[in-house]
Amino acid sequence: MIEPGGDERRSRLGILARLGIVLLILAVGAGGVLLLRATTSREAGPTSTENAAEAIPAADVEPGAVAPATATATARPRPQAVAGEDPLRTWANRLAGPAEIPARALMAYGNAELVLRTEDPGCHLSWATLAGIGRIESDHGRYGGAELRDDGRPSKPIVGVPLDGSPGVRAISDTDGGRFDGDPAVDRAVGPMQFIPSTWHRWAADANLDGRGDPQQIDDAALAAARYLCANDRDLAVPADWWAAVFSYNNSVSYGQKVFGLADAYARATL
Question: Could you tell me if 187 and 198 are in contact, meaning their C-beta atoms sit under 8 angstroms apart?
């Protein structure tokens, strides 16, 4: 989940030395990157489906000390220039088994990386980091028994608990009139990447080019999350920036260590 105002939270890390890491490269296919439209407005942040990832172990790593291994998605050519099979789908189908991630979710994470690679190359976002967050937030769009359909939407909407100030839950008054979360009283996090409606309003992306940004559609949600993580000129190849980005999503050491463990494992499983 994205913490409200979380993209400004870097104080947890202090002034950590910007340590270098070795970038582990998978393979970059030939062809251009399909740039996707996005709509932006206001700010806030995503929030997770509470108990979706309690069993995921936290990596034994000190926050800010190191960034996870990096694997890159294969390039996606422009559709008007290429006929036949989409290389991004081929890449996702090939890695779905080793990574234990649905191919449709991998396509969304990979596509978001490719867009950021052109749009903000200095960020060095890897699909594996998005996958780590997506696993914790919604089990890659499968939370609550949902199935991720080929159109990138879950078979039933993914909506978090009411953020009403109950024990262990933050209080966030309604910001969308129930448009995205169906709750006109308080906000709830929505979609595979668990955006709070007010945060979605600012970071909404139309990654599948259907003319609207939909937090339930995983391509849209993954691209919005990618841009959120890359805010403030972060370079996610730098440990301090990687941890700052993840803490902006959820300001919890345990959460960050879980994302690290997942992202590192995903990258290494596909190298």
Answer: yes
198: left (phi over 0), alpha (psi -120 to 50) or beta: alpha
| Beta strand pairing call for 37-38 and 205-206 | antiparallel
Per the structure block, which two tokens stand in for 222?
Answer: 């993954």
**Rounded Cα distance, 149 and 137, in Å:** 18
**Rounded Cα gap, residues 165 and 18, in angstroms:** 37
**To the nearest 5 percent, what fractions of the chain are helix, strand and coil?**
40, 5, 55
Residue 115 CA from chain centroid, whole number: 13
Task: Give the Cβ contact number of residue 75 at 10 Å.
Answer: 20
Distance of CA 117 to the CA centre of its chain: 15
**CA end-to-end span of the chain, whole Å?**
28
Query: Consecutive sets of 10 residues in the chain, 271 residues long: mean pLDDT of each?
Result: 48 30 28 29 43 83 96 63 74 95 97 97 98 97 95 96 90 92 94 95 96 97 98 98 97 97 94 78
Q: What is the DSSP letter of 173?
A: B
pLDDT (0 to 100) of residue 260: 98
- Tokens 């251009």, residue located: 32
Judge whether 153 and 142 are in contact, CB under 8 Å. no
